[in-house]
Fold this sequence. Notes:
By secondary structure, this protein is of the alpha/beta class. It has two domains: 11-180, 3-Layer(aba) Sandwich (Rossmann fold); 208-249, no CATH class. It has six helices and ten strands; from the N terminus they run βαβββαβααβαβαβββ. It has helices at 25-34, 75-78, 97-101, 103-114, 141-151, 167-191; strands at 11-18, 43-44, 47-56, 59-68, 87-93, 123-128, 156-158, 219-225, 248-249, 253-254. Strands 1, 3, 4, 5, 6, 7, 8 and 9 form an eight-stranded mixed beta sheet that branches. Strands 2-10 form a two-stranded antiparallel sheet. α5 links the parallel β6 (123-128) and β7 (156-158). It is globular and about 55 Å long. Residues 19, 21-27, 39-41, 43-44, 69-71, 128-129, 131-132, 160-162, 258 line the site of guanosine-5'-triphosphate. One of its GO terms (biological process) is retrograde transport, endosome to Golgi. Pfam families: Ras. Its EC number is 3.6.5.2. GO terms for molecular function: G protein activity; GTP binding; protein-containing complex binding.
Amino acid sequence: MTNMRPPQKSKLLKVIILGDGGVGKSALLTRFVSNRYEENNFHTIGVEFMDKDIAVDGEKYTLQIWDTAGQERFRALRTPFYRGSDMCLLCYALDDRDSLRGLRLWRNEFLNYADVEPDRFPFIVVGNKNDIRAEKRQVSSEDVQKWCTEQGISAHIETSSKAATNVTDAFVLALRQWKKMECIAEAEQRQNGETINLTQPIRLMQRRSCCMGGDGATKSADVIDADDDDDGQTTDAAMHAPNAISRHLFGQFRSSPKAPSTNYRL
Length: 266
Ligand SMILES: Nc1nc2c(ncn2[C@@H]2O[C@H](COP(=O)(O)OP(=O)(O)OP(=O)(O)O)[C@@H](O)[C@H]2O)c(=O)[nH]1
């Protein structure tokens, strides 16, 4: 006999990162999962995913994060992988005004192929490259706030994969948005008198299909505990590079180099 609770199983959640080519989606994923940054990244072709364990508010999650090709010509390669996503990071670069405007198309493309309810799906907006010099910045906090309000998105955050700023926070923010949506869905189910399966996340959205990577995914060796900090903020310094990381590619790379703030208290 023991009083010990059985080890808590972590929930597997599929996260998708969308945005124009070159805004830094792959850099964000690499920084989050393996705490590395490369100046000369390759364009993604198709999609690739990596897993990362994270603990938020005392609960464990495995985030299966899908990085997609931002270039228009790879549309057909990326869209089949949208279904089954639990949350979406819409990513733009702070030195590229057009990449913020482009998020409307990204959101529409996602809604179209993922077949989810627009008002019930956890989107967050991520402004990457906030390490750039002030004179290079093309998007102000007011611009992004206005855009988010127009689109009905309640959370945005600025990050820098290069300087390792707010990267973990961006994923925690998305996770908290997902939890918020789950709570709303659960409350609605209760109101409607439906049976709630407490072992499963509540799904308002169309569910995942063949695109999940399952057990074959390589996971980072370390676990981020987003609750560790005294002030409730997560920090990238809390991350450690894992021993062996590999990406699961659903396309290939081609080798051509390319050229903190949030509205949300975590
Ligand atoms: N200054 C700065 N540059 C960054 C940052 N993140 C990425 N970059 C630069 O932006 C380039 C493109 O980054 P990627 O991560 O490949 O962009 P992507 O959005 O994945 O691009 P696609 O694969 O074409 O969709 C990198 O090679 C870096 O030079 C950042 O936080 N700050």
